[in-house]
Each structure stands twice: as structure tokens, then as C-alpha cells.
Amino acid sequence: MESQTVKKKRGRKPKVRDYYEGAGGGKRGGGAGEGDGGGMRERAKSGQQQPVDDSYSRWKNVVPVIYDWLANHNLVWPSLSCRWGPQIEAGNNKNRQRLYLSEQTDGTVPNTLVIANCEIVKPRVAAAEYISAFNEEARSPFVKKHKTILHPGEVNRIRELPQSNRIVATHTDCPEVFIWDIEAQPNRHAVLGAAVSRPDLILTGHQDNAEFALAMCPAEPFVLSGGKDKSVVLWSIQDHISTLATDSEATKSPGSSGSIIKSNSNPSEGNDRPADSPSIGPRGIFHGHEDTVEDVQFCPSSAQEFCSVGDDSCLILWDARIGFSPVIKVEKAHNADLHCVDWNPHDQNFILTGSADNSVCMFDRRSLTSGGIGTPVHKFEDHKAAVLCVQWCPDKSSVFGSSAEDGLLNIWDHQLVGKKKEGGPRTPTSASGLFFKHAGHRDKVVDFHWNSSDPWTVVSVSDDCDVSGGGGTLQIWRMSDMIYRDEEAVLAELRNFKAHVADCPSWKQ
Question: Which of these, 116, 308, 347, lies nearest to 215 by C-alpha position?
């Protein structure tokens, strides 16, 4: 169908495959962090895969040099989204933190939303030889499944609510947005025929499927979505709370604190009709796009200002206080479909967009004009395929990441644009502003997320089922701090280390 054609063309969604064609043709089961899934699929022909294998081998050789820590986790089923949850335990050498994933199955078992516990090794703890000695076809001991929610349809996008560490929203192939209280939801087993879990709240308002564009507001409990109906829809979760205000005090229990979702239903049993869950309508529906809305993002300081991008190649800025029409519409922000957008939380003038034209653009909203052709501050070009995800780094205002269908996750610093390193000019193959390439994935990197609780730590997920011997690859990694720290500080540390080595008795013998 048309929707399937778009998905395959863009690579946003792993293609439906006969995942395991092993002995007896049996299909796999289980979930992230469980077993080996029942067998391995036949790999792609070696001649077709050789260039990727060569590049990957070169990357793996330098892992001990350029990474402070890295964990590789082979997935049983493909995941289209990965997000960090709250930190739940701090230790001497590692911290434990929630991680949200999805499992896109082939229908033999239900699709799932997975809540995992992840152990994150602290900086300068892991030995270099240890982080490079991983098995690509193994599950990582650092990632353990904590809870499974049987999701109504496959999970295309996960977003966490900043105001509550137990609320997440999900997009699937339907017009609704599902809201989940992950602490109240029971742990379910993904077996054939099991009834799906019941969402704690359903957000209605789209007239067609809304698959990828989803955002939660940092300032207030607002939710934003975009879809195939070419619209952007805004909700307030507070609207659901107000409808239950009359009986909220009567139903409050000591264990209910921490959740802003006041459920009037019992989710403890599965229900194959999510429509039985409570629902609310939108605060506003905003029209201005001429094609599918692919991504949305709030202004970091406002629940009323937000932006959106779509397959019409437009970047649109909105203000709900003014009305339901665009405040600023940037035509031709790129020369192809726009897939992703992010708003800088440190400097709210800067907005990133990623596109099917393989580039990332940085716009300054002070220089945008309504109806004008897009004039980015800079266009970042290095990817060899469509860009699927962009995100600003929470630890440095000028740094951001971009992932693409070329299997790379690039880390950029826009303050480095046009600058030459001391000791010689940039090499002809280096892109301006690019200072790190994560090349550990062997096919399209469909999602990644910076960790705001653990500086410079990233989780990324790829659809490399054909080469990973499983359902794709999840990687948690942190580049060496010598790559992004001040150069003088790094050189001083190296000089001190050299002096220390020279003073060691074993070197003087």
C-alpha cells in the first residue's frame, strides 16, 4: 500500500521479514535480554555485505582508543525507538537507570513496549580491553528486561513525560496517542493470543494515522503529535485530571503519589479493546502542512510554542496563543522530505532539521520569514543516506547528534564550523563541524537518545537484522572525554601521564 511504500523508501520502519528461517522454519519468541530467540537467520551474501564489514572491522579495532565505555546488546526483535527513563540507583562504579524500548514482532507474539533496567558504568572505570571484547550476537549483561507491556500495534515512537518519571507516550499505526503509567501497568508475558494491555489514557484528535511525530513538553504536561492527516495536534494531560477531580481524593491511595494520571479503570487485566480506556480530546488542531507531518518539538520553555516538519519539505513554527495557523512557515527547508526536528534547550533560537536529502540544517528563528525559502545558519553534510533522527546534546549547547540510514551516528559541534585544527588544515574528507563518528551499527540507525542523567552517554538502536543475527542492535556508549574536552586540559593530562610513566621504577631498570 501507499503507507508501506513510504516506510520502505524512507527506512523509518524495519521491513517485515521471515526473521528466523532456521531448522523447521520455526519463529522466535521472547524479548529483549532473553535467550537466543530460537535460531539464526541466513545472512546476506558476503559479496554484498563486504564494504560494511570492512568499515565495521576498522571501527572495532579503535574502540578501546576512542570510547570510555561501550555495551552491545543483540535484540530479539527490532526496536524502532529507544529512550532513557529515570535513574533508579547510584553506585560506586556504575548507575542503574530505566531504558524504554519496543519490540516489533512478526505477529506470532504481541508487539511490546519494554521497560528495561540498564547498568551504566561510570567514566574512567571500564578497562579498554574489556569494552572491545563484545560478541555481536550476544545479549549484554548490562541490559535486563524489567517489565513488558503488550502494546496495541507496533511501537513506532516512545516519549517520556518530564513532569513524571512514570508516564510515557507511544505512537503506533493508528490516529490515537497512548499514554502509559509504567509503574501501574502489570508485567505481561508476550505469548500468542494474549490480550493487549490497556492504556491508562488515550489522546484523540487525528483523522488519519499518526505514526512518528510525537513530543512531550519540558515546561508543562502537554503532548504534541503530527500525522498523515497533515495536522499537528496539542493535548494537555491536565485536562484528564480535571475531569476526574470530583473523585480523585476518594480514590487516592498512599502508593499513587508520583503519577499525574488518575485512572478510572483497572489496568491489571489485559483488554483487547484499548478504546475502553479513558480518553480526552485536543486543546487545538493546527493546519498548515500539505503532506504528512513527520516530527514535532516543543520550545523548551513553553507549552504554547512548538515546531513541526513534514514530507512537504516545510519547517513550521506555531504559537497556540495566537491561533491555529502557522506563525512562520519555511518553504523548502530542505530539498526533500523532512524526517526530524529538535529545538536547542540551551539556546532557544536554534532549531535542527534532518532530511531525506542526507543533510542536517541549523536554523536561527530570528532570521526566518513567513513564506520564505529556508536559509539555514549552516548545512551539515556528511551522511550518505537519509537522516532519521537529530538531537541536541544536553551537556554542551553547541553539540548535537544525527543518525541516518547509512548506519552512522555523527556528533557535531557548530562552533567548530570553519575552524582549522592547529598543526594543519582539515582533511578533504572531514565535514565542517563533525568531530566524532559512531560507526558501531551495521545498518540504518533508526533512533538514539542522549542521557541527561549520565553526561555524554548515548543509547542508539539500528535495524541491522540481516547482519546482527537477531532483531537489530542496541548500543550504549560514551566517547572518551579526551575527544570533547578542552585541548589544553587534555594535553596537560597527557604530559602528566608521560611524566608519571617516566618516573615508574620499572622503566628506570
Answer: 308
Q: What is the pLDDT of residues 90-149, one digit of tens each?
A: 999 999 999 999 999 999 999 999 999 999 999 999 988 888 888 888 999 999 999 999
Could you tell me which of 161, 140, 10, 18 has the C-alpha nearest to residue 80? 10
Query: Cβ(409)–Cβ(464) under 8 Å?
Result: no
Whether 277 and 199 have beta carbons less than 8 Å apart is answered as yes
Residues in the chain: 509
At 361, the amino acid letter reads C
Q: Rounded distance, CA 448 to CA 416, Å?
A: 23
Q: 192-207 pLDDT, tens per residue?
A: 999 999 999 999 999 9
What pLDDT, in 10s, does the model give residues 449-493? 999 999 999 999 998 877 766 789 999 999 999 999 988 888 888
Q: Are 234 and 282 in contact (CB under 8 A)?
A: yes
For residue 329, what is the DSSP state?
A: E
Most distant CA pair in the chain: distance in Å?
A: 82
User: What does the block give as the cell for 14?
Assistant: 524495519
Beta-bridged to residue 296, according to DSSP, are 308
